[in-house]
Design a protein that fits this description.
With 218 residues, this protein is α/β, with parallel strands linked by helices. It has nine helices and five strands; from the N terminus they run βαβααααβαβααβα. Bound molecules: cytidine-5'-monophosphate. The site of cytidine-5'-monophosphate has 15 residues, from α2, α4 and α8.
Amino acid sequence: MYKRKNILKIAIDSPAAAGAGTLARNISKNYNLFYLDTGKIYRYIAYLKLKFPKKFNNTFIKSKIRNLKIKDLSNKNLLSDEVGTEASIISKKKSIRKMIHSFQLNFAYNPPKKYNGSCLDGRDITYNIVPDANFKFYITANVKTRALRRYRELKKLKKKVTYKEVLKSIKKRDKSDQNRSISPLKKTKDSLLINTTNLNKRACFLKIKKIIDGKIKN
Ligand code: C5P
């Protein structure tokens, strides 16, 4: 695979609803990086499984991945809790992770020329997808805070859910993502821990920006 040289690569791992997506988007905008929320790829596959249960096999998934466009990942249907839960189930399959591996690598190492680099967030980015990233972060927050944030997001989308249901589903997803045998969510030794429980979006962004600027300018 062709790899662009001298690009800035940022890798982020985080449990669900820790604020990593917003942060990664803001960081990408600031440093002009190509941004990929890798959870959306798993959500997209989960959505296909729920929508086309009879067609759902490896050949079907492969053809969908081959033709996958970034805009397919902004489909609002991918945001539901049902799709998130299903994503956590299908993401345990080795064959599925293998199918989207090169899509993620190409995104990370070969972003379009107009970008200075790439920023990916997910569960296994810091040690599996972009192990040589210039910056690695593990973004987390207290589970109740994360559930409240996700609950508010879902309410904004007019989804019928209760806070209790969201909390239960996030706890279940944490357990499943952290304890699976393949590519589990973990904080690597070389990742910087950022706890967003008591930080607003701006404060999180400034904290990370300070770390990156401090290293880039030296
Ligand atoms: O980040 P998000 O909550 O949208 O991810 C949905 C699910 O996709 C996660 O709970 C996880 O099981 C899976 N995922 C993964 N590896 C990634 C990103 C997401 O297994 N790199």
